[in-house]
TrEMBL record, chain A:
Pfam families (alphabetical): PX (PF00787), Vps5 (PF09325)
Keyword Transport: yes
Gene, per the UniProt record: snx7
Family of this protein: Belongs to the sorting nexin family.
Annotated protein name in UniProt: Sorting nexin 7
Parts forming coiled coils: 381-408
UniProtKB/TrEMBL annotation, chain B:
Protein name: PX domain-containing protein
Keyword Cell wall biogenesis/degradation: no
Gene3D superfamilies according to UniProt: Arfaptin homology (AH) domain/BAR domain, Phox-like domain
MF terms in GO: phosphatidylinositol-3-phosphate binding
GO BP annotations, alphabetical order: positive regulation of autophagosome assembly; protein transport
CDD domains per UniProt: BAR_SNX4, PX_SNX4
Signal peptide (residue range): none
Residues in PX domain copies: 15-142
Keywords: Protein transport, Transport
Stored InterPro entries: AH/BAR_dom_sf, PX_dom, PX_dom_sf, PX_SNX4, SNX4, SNX4_BAR
Any single Gene Ontology cellular-component annotation: SNARE complex
Stated family: Belongs to the sorting nexin family.
Amino acid sequence: MSRTIDAVVSPTQTNTIPADISGQMLDLDEDDDLEVFSKDSTLADGNMFNASMPTSPGSMVNQCKFEEDEESDSKDIFITVDNPESHVTAIETFITYRVLTKTTRSEFDNSEYEVRRRYQDFLWLKGKLEDTHSTLIVHPLPEKFVVKGMVERFNGDFIETRRKALHKFLNRVADHPILSCSEDFKVFLSAQAWELTTYKKQGPGFLSRMGETVRAVANSVRGVKNRPEEFTAIQEYVEDFSNKIGSLDKVTQRIVKEQKEYLEELKEYGPTYTLWSGSEEELAEQLKGVAGCIERCCKETEEQVGHLSDTLVPVLHEYVLCAETLKAVLRRRDNIQAEFEAKNEALATKKVDRDAESSDLGFVWGSLLGKNPEEARHQRQERLDGEIEELKEEIDKLEDRVEWANNALKGDWGRWQRSMRGDLKSAFLSTAEKNVDYYEKCLAVWETFLLSQRTEPSEETDRDNTP
Amino acid sequence: MVEEGSTLLRRMEISVAEAEKRTGKNTVNMQEIFTVYLIETRPIDAITEGHNPAPDSLWRRYSEFEILRNYLLVTYPFIVVPPLPEKRAEFVWHKLSADNMDPDFVERRRVGLENFLLRVASHSVLSNDKILYHFLTEEHRWKEVVCETGFQAKADSRIKALSATFRVKNPDKRFTEMKHYSDELQSLTSQLLRVRARVADRLYGVYKVHGNYGRVFSEWSALEKEMGDGLQSAGHHMDAYAASVDDMLEEEEHYADQLKEYLFYAEALRAVCRKHELTQYELETASSDLISKKQQREELATGMVRTFSFKGMTNKLFGQETPEQREAKLSLLEEQIVQGEETVTEKTVECEEYVKGAWVDMQRFKEQKDRDLREALIGYAVMQISMCKKGIQVWTNAKECFHKM
């Protein structure tokens, strides 16, 4: 049975963000108002979108698994990235990807959008999301270019790998309860090329962004003094996780390399049996049989390596990038807290200042200029009081900011861990399944050969010659 | 398969039971370490009668086996003599040691030497040889006895003859084809062995790298609460997978040894064909010698020069010889012709007998080769199946562990 997407969300459901987001994020599983998708139609809808993409069974499975994985079976936005095309201008050559969005969300004017985006646009979106929600965990983008392999930017494999990663990136953003409501995200999905360019130009100017960066650097140099225990624990975990996932990434790439070299030698091995069969009479059939077995095993090996490269390698690589993202998020959270602490210290200093009976320079000057010392001190006190009030207001805002940042991170942390477990478990599971399949196929090849040997009339001659 | 008499193996149980290291002084009086192999023999009838006699035994080193084989090669040139296991490790891949002292190499050599003795002792012709019997039973006097046969001189001239170049006018076509086949067999099997070694090397690499998964999974499992158990046990299976390749490849070495035996057999086969060519060549030389002598006699007798000859030329230039000279020459020629006819007869018989004996043994060899290699290929398939089954088991187990993650 297949349903149309429009029936996904009941008309009364809206997707506005309630004031208290932390609560919302933790209660994702309990959305009773939403209609539940049957798994069949999810798959069927998944198929529709894959029409223009090269569909290997593997990628389809990943896609469908991905879409099934949702906590609530009620996706109201479907995004695909496909159809890479090369664009040549006078200045440069670059690739754009088609981004197709189908949605029933009310903040979108239409239910369907088709736009073309280039990698730079994705980078921009990620940057904006991180700026706006600095302590939420944004899924990583594929890297700008692969230095290690010296892969050309326009190489088919590279483009396909990147396309898959971009697809995953957008879908992860779409799944995120907060990020998916971002205005920048909406514009990215719906604006035409020139509209996007205009939109990008808005926002804080260069100088103010510089100012922010300087402040951030200053804060990070200063460091945070009273980091809550749980974030230290998270940081330690991220350090360790980063090491482990980096190792896994390296090991897996090494396995792929060794397997490919094995395959190369195996391809030369079968023919040596075929060659030999040309010189034999009785043995020719058998030798050709062995050669055939080896050739078929070659094909299976090739498929197995391909699966490894398509399924496990990209996921591990993504999580290497994730680890870096997490480190950055933790740093930003620290900076927010550091800024708050800095202002608090400033406030304390100012208060001390105000209460001090010191003969400060201003007082001296004031008296020189003929001001009444009492009045001068009174003026100074008033000034300082004003500054203190200002500071207090700023501190209140910063305090809110710290609390918001911490809660956002805490909520997203649990979410990220669940995703990570799900992604890695599924990737390793798929690899193990493929390996079992590989050995089963090779087993069948050799068993068939053995069977053909045993049914031939065997030479039951008296064997007193052979050891 | 023709059998003459009962072969030695029917009467005696032979095995190469052990290997040991010895030290001693070599020919240039330097200390060396070498390996000796224990040959054990027991009479078959004693065993079948229900007794269990202790075996007679003696120690031999590889070089003594070589001497025995060289003796057999010159004494029975029409037999495809079974080869010895390789002198030095070849077709080595990185994990395999090229060291002759390596215990795995010594063990494989022990098996090869036993195989050699069993083949020789079950051969209808070779097994009756006295020197072979002494090799198996007389530890100390054997070397002198074999040297007394004077085989060494024959061995040297054999080697020279085998590498000499000469043209045979009428070789037996079957032998020419067989020689051609032996060349092919040699090059094809050595190519196969070379590639097989490279494949084994690569496969080793693939399996061993998976061991790193074991280590990292184990470390990672300490970090994760939910996934910890699954990861930990998956890691164990990855370790098992990496470790399994050692035994599998060791087993494959036995397959390689079976192929190597026939690589070396090809050389022996070639030698038999070459010996035929040599014998045929000697016959042809003797025949053409005889023909030319007869021709000379005719020329002298009739005074007619039928074909161009230097004698004819000098006759024309310097005049003919005296009748007395001619008579002396004629009688010498007659003697030579008689001798030549004897030689030709001898050589013809020698050739015919050689061809007969060699052809029989080459047929025997062909059948043995087809049987043995067929078995070897089946064994190889069985090994591959076993490897696949182990792979299925490991990855199925790993899959279970990943499920628990």
